[in-house]
Amino acid sequence: MSAQLYAYMARRGDGRLVGGTLSASSPHDALDELRGRALVVTALNPAGSLKGALTGVVTPGSGNALALHAFFRAFATLVRNGVPVGRALGLAGSDCADRRLAEALAAVESSIRVGSSLSGAMANRPRQFAPLLVTIIRAGEAAGRLEESLESIADLFDRRRAMQRRLVSALAYPCIVAISAVALVIFLAGSVLPTIGHLALSLGAKLPPSTAFLFWCGSLLIRPASWIVGLVCAICTALAVRRLLAVDAVATTLEAVIGQTPIVGRIVRSSATARLSRTLGTLLAAGVEIGEALTHSADAVGTRCYRSVIERTRESIAEGASLASVLCDRRLFDPLFIQLVKIGEESGSLDRMLLQIAAESEAQAEASLLALSTTLEPFLILILGALVGGIVAAVLMPLYSLIGSIR
Asked: What is the model's pTM?
């Protein structure tokens, strides 16, 4: 069989996403080669196909998050009530709305029937079951507390979902105002201004520079070619920005700048602290060794600044340092966070302390989101009023000129 070029996306052992192409005689051989490089493959497509062309640009998802959330909540409830794991898998996955997740659950159930462990079967499906979930389940199996591990995963999904709902709720009104403002400006510039402009020019009135500029913008908005060119430019810009943010130095610098802004920076720090504390506390409570728990927590945090600090922390802990003594970057972590981690280590209840920190950080992030929403609302209304007022003034100026010329 002749070799074929495949485009792939995969995660390294440190959790970072990598991509590229390789030549192989079949998809199976390509997967074997990538796994031999210690990579967890998340996407593999022929390089000549549309999916292959997009693989290096768009990061594939890990399954339907809502469907996965619903499955783990139902699965944990069934196992807690004494239903065997294999049967609980079938029952919890019977109403799964995501086709790929349903197929993955059927494959996991088949593997369990032939003697595989639950964590081992799920580890073979990394696109549907993230390494973090597999690690928690593996620790629960080793400790004989699988139902507790499943409950921890379900609670983790609950917290993340609640945080997303609060984010959407806080930013919904400002987004609606912003969209309304843009739509109103486009309507006025594309519908009202051209009519007024043509009328004024037909009557011999001289258009002021501001009105002429808006009239030119309005004439562009009514041309389909302008929308096509704008859409192409927007897509190219988005792809270029995505590529630029993939550079570690650029992304790290941008994250550092955002982290120092008054309100947004507070939201970013509180959210990252909450994700770190929630993930690390859940893993430690499940019995995962702290080095491995930090590895998965670094990937769950989502920002390069925090990930690099956590990776250094993992190396220092392997040399005998304490967690609190390493997490001393006050630009990323509040002094209270460091003190509470130190108290948790000294009292032997680090997992419970981290979960309490997560709850407090989530509350702080929610309060900061509310403050941001409250700040944005009047600001957006002022911008909307200024834009509409400017357009109205641009329309009235040639009308006054016409009235003056008639007199």
From this structure: 0.61
